[in-house]
Amino acid sequence: MTTKYARIAKQLESDISDGIYVDKLPNERELCAKFGVSRNTINQALHQLEDLGLIFRKHGSGTYIRKVLDIDTNSQAAHIHNFADGFTYSAELNNFKAETEVINFEMVLANEDLSERLNVKKLTPLFKVERLRKADGVTVCYETNILPVSLLPNLNPDIMAGSLFRYAEKQLNQKIINASVRVTAPLADQIIQEQLKLPKENPVVIRSESTVFIEDGTPLEFSDTYYLPAYFSLKSNA
To answer: How many CB atoms neighbour CB 211 within 10 A?
Structure first.
């Protein structure tokens, strides 16, 4: 017999899929009234949606819907980065030899923006890592990764020269499930131009700002990545 909260979760999942709720769900009080159930039942339904990676909750702000972005596998471009699998896996899947060069590794404190993105308090210690990602020897993206020190306290440059996601899954015993991503196509600044060897006359890049989540809904990292356009393609299922 299906429980009340499971039925509610299924209905909310359907509503999200149908576009009834796009950015945010109604608050718990409104959901209680809508379904005629207790707050505890609504909480259980929301927990189920969190486990599916469909929503995330911000204390004091509300319940938000995660956007799902998938790589377009029919594209002619060389799509080497699937957000939930990571650069190394996606490059290998497309028969590229993946390499990573760590050019900066330091500890910083969370500002207001990063505390929101990673769901941590301001001034929380974070690792900041800058990396060049290469495919068959070609530098195809310039990446800045920000991670809570508390999640992976033994992180170091040698680890970041490999696959962060594979290391994190082993250490945390949880899979990377999805990512909330914003993609734009700006003109690169001088540093990005030089690192990616872009032409000076029209240095367009693909920029992705993404927060990656593990199975329990915890944000693992925020990354700000600039790609050579030829190595990036996607479609949105949001």
So the answer is: 23
Burial of 208: CB neighbours in 10 Å, binned 0-12, 13-18, 19+: buried
Report the C-alpha gap between 192 and 134 in whole angstroms.
14
Eight-state DSSP code of residue 22? S
Say which amino acid occupies 75: S
According to DSSP, residue 20 is labeled: S
Question: Which one-letter DSSP state was computed for residue 218?
Answer: -
How many DSSP H helices and E strands does the chain contain?
8, 10
Mean pLDDT of the region 147-161: 97
| pTM for this predicted structure | 0.65
What 15-24 contacts at long range (C-beta under 8 Å, 24+ apart), as own/partner pairs, is 16/54, 16/55, 16/65, 21/65, 22/65, 23/64, 23/65, 24/62, 24/63, 24/64, 24/65
Q: Please name the residues in contact with 228: beta carbons below 8 A apart, sequence gap of 6 or more.
A: 138, 140, 141, 196, 198, 205, 206
> Distance (Å, rounded) from C-alpha 185 to C-alpha 166?
29
Rounded CA-CA distance 210/189 in Å is: 20
Give whole-number Cα distances, 76 to 24, 56, 87, 214, 229, in Å: 34, 34, 18, 30, 12
Q: What is the pLDDT of residues 130-139, one digit of tens each?
A: 999 998 889 9
